[in-house]
């Protein structure tokens, strides 16, 4: 069995942004200064004010949680008071974070926004920023790195850059960088002893290169300590997404989050909030932070959990992923009782007649084979081929497999995405609806992936002119994202705008269909939906919560 990547952030950027762009007349973007900023040799002004401001906005207090010994899991966090759906249990800034090597010139190294026009650091020519404000805000993190890259003569990989940034930070602030930090980095697991041979080999190469890169003038560390830091990053590094939460663009370390254990059916979700980065002055910036949010009622004393892997996978597959990536055996209720595994591999019942196990197995194997072909066609960007493969597959398997079968869901998801890109909106809408209906039977009602899928389906229905269904789905997505992302997240704000817009359109449509259609035509002509990007391969999205070194 293979993992099914249905992470919300693997949604193609264009599907959502296109409509968001259409709906919103103005978008807050960082103003980009015209000249390339020169890195000053002196430190930019201190940024303590902005840290105070952000902590006033979202308290980084950890008084709602306590560290305890979780039976069978080691250390964990539990609630010290009652919580309800959508409550922020805690929020915290990263000790440090870096942009992926592959996106180093496309993502701002300070605010992690994707921008078309970035400006290079005049010194190292490696770090890129939206503007001088971002450069100033990121200077404390970049200062030593900038000098080290210049001296080293090349740029080390993302693991080494992150380990270095963390060590410089620790050297400056000590093992506990804030009062709210519940454990030192020393206390976190590194699992170096559990690594497989080939993984260990790459690990050692990183440490070797780190030692070459690390400046003589910086505080020297033992190889054991350095290896521990690399190990901690390896099993606790958290994927940092771009400002819309649609693509993984970097990796960071959030020390308190590391203490939250896994459950396949968790009571919390974690989301990255970029805070306010659009203000032109650094003092109004608020920091990028993660938020641990409650998915439903949590009682005082209950352990807080998040899912490290996507629930859509069968329990056996989830357990395998967790073992190889996070080095533990999952004994959660859903794994031990194999809850919903039957639905995920089920055949469909037509007029009380079920297909035989043999038929279901045959259709499942066939689907699996076609998924492989589909991925290859998708990687090549041959989207018409993708459509052909999906349709061929569906013709054979739709009559046999249940609407909760995870391979069928995967085919519907890919097909709707590609059809929306090719602007066959009616077709795209139909498959998106099937996908959401299947997801609703599998996922927790407040699952972020479900919310993002409903958003995508809502947008597609709107594009297909099915305004009523579209509006319903957008409302559903909005209700979920208010819990999982919160009202200040850019995607929730986009959804709010879409909800208002579709509501208005729906009212107009009910009053006068003709006027509505002519206005919509005019609006579409005025601002055609050409912002749609190519559908990305699932590989490019965020497969798992925590980042894995490559
Ligand atoms: Zn920026
Ligand atoms: Zn630099
Ligand atoms: Zn489990």
Automatic annotation (TrEMBL):
Record SMART domains: SET
EC primary class: transferase
Gene Ontology terms for molecular function: histone H3K4 trimethyltransferase activity; myosin binding; zinc ion binding
Source taxon at top rank: Eukaryota
Catalyses which reaction(s): L-lysyl(4)-[histone H3] + 3 S-adenosyl-L-methionine = N(6),N(6),N(6)-trimethyl-L-lysyl(4)-[histone H3] + 3 S-adenosyl-L-homocysteine + 3 H(+)
Swiss-Prot/TrEMBL GO biological process terms: cardiac muscle myosin thick filament assembly; heart contraction; methylation; regulation of cardiac muscle fiber development; sarcomere organization; sarcomerogenesis; skeletal muscle fiber development; skeletal muscle myosin thick filament assembly
Keyword terms of this UniProt record: Metal-binding, Methyltransferase, S-adenosyl-L-methionine, Transferase, Zinc, Zinc-finger
The protein's Enzyme Commission number: 2.1.1.354
GO cellular component: a single term: M band
Limits of the SET domain: 63-309
Domain MYND-type residue range list: 108-146
Any one Pfam family match given in the protein's UniProt record, by short name: zf-MYND
Name this polypeptide is given: [histone H3]-lysine(4) N-trimethyltransferase
Lineage, top ranks: Eukaryota, Metazoa, Chordata, Craniata, Vertebrata
């Amino acid at each position: 069995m293979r993992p099914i990547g249905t992470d919300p952030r693997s949604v193609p950027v264009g599907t959502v942004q296109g409509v968001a762009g259409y709906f919103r007349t103005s978008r807050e973007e960082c103003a980009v200064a015209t000249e390339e900023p020169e890195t000053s040799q002196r430190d930019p002004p201190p940024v303590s004010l902005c840290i105070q401001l952000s902590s006033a906005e979202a308290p980084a207090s950890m008084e709602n949680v306590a560290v305890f010994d979780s039976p069978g899991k080691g250390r964990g966090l539990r609630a010290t008071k009652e919580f309800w759906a959508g409550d922020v249990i805690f929020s915290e800034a990263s000790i440090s974070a870096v942009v992926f090597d592959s996106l180093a010139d496309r993502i701002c190294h300070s605010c992690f926004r994707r921008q078309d026009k970035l400006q290079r650091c005049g010194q190292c020519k490696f770090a890129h920023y939206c503007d001088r404000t971002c450069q100033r805000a990121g200077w404390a993190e970049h200062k030593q790195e900038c000098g080290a890259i210049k001296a080293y003569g090349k740029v080390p990989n993302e693991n080494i850059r992150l380990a270095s940034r963390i060590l410089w930070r620790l050297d400056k602030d000590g093992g506990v960088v804030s009062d709210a930090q519940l454990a030192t980095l020393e206390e976190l697991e590194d699992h170096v002893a559990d690594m497989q041979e080939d993984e260990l080999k790459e690990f050692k190469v990183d440490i070797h290169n780190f030692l070459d890169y690390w400046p003589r003038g910086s505080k020297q560390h033992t190889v054991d300590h350095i290896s521990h830091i690399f190990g901690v990053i390896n099993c606790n590094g958290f994927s940092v997404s771009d400002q819309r939460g649609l693509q993984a663009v970097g990796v960071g370390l959030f020390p308190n989050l590391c203490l939250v254990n896994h459950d396949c059916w968790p009571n919390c979700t974690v989301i990255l909030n970029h805070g306010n980065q659009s203000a032109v002055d650094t003092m109004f910036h608020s920091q990028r932070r993660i938020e641990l949010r409650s998915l439903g009622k949590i009682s005082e004393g209950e352990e807080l959990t998040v899912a490290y892997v996507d629930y859509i996978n069968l329990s056996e597959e989830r357990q395998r992923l967790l073992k190889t990536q996070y080095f533990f055996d999952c004994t959660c209720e859903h794994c031990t009782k194999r809850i919903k595994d039957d639905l995920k591999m089920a055949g469909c019942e037509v007029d009380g007649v079920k297909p035989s196990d043999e038929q279901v197995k045959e259709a499942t194997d066939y689907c699996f084979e076609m998924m492989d072909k589909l991925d290859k066609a998708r990687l090549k960007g041959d989207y018409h081929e993708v459509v052909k493969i999906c349709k061929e597959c569906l013709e054979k398997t739709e009559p046999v497999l249940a609407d909760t079968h995870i391979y069928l869901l995967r085919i519907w998801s890919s097909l709707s995405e590609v059809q929306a890109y090719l602007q066959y909106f009616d077709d795209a809408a139909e498959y998106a609806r099937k996908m959401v209906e299947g997801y609703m039977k599998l996922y927790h009602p407040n699952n972020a992936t479900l919310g993002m899928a409903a958003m995508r389906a809502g947008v597609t229905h709107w594009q297909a002119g099915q305004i009523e269904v579209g509006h319903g789905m957008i409302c559903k997505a909005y209700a979920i994202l208010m819990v999982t992302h919160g009202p200040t997240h850019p995607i929730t704000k986009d959804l709010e705008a879409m909800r208002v817009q579709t509501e208005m359109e729906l009212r107009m449509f009910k009053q006068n269909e003709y006027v509505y259609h002519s206005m919509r035509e005019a609006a579409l002509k005025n601002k055609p939906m050409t912002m749609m990007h190519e559908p990305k391969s699932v590989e490019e999205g965020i497969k798992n919560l925590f980042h894995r070194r490559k």
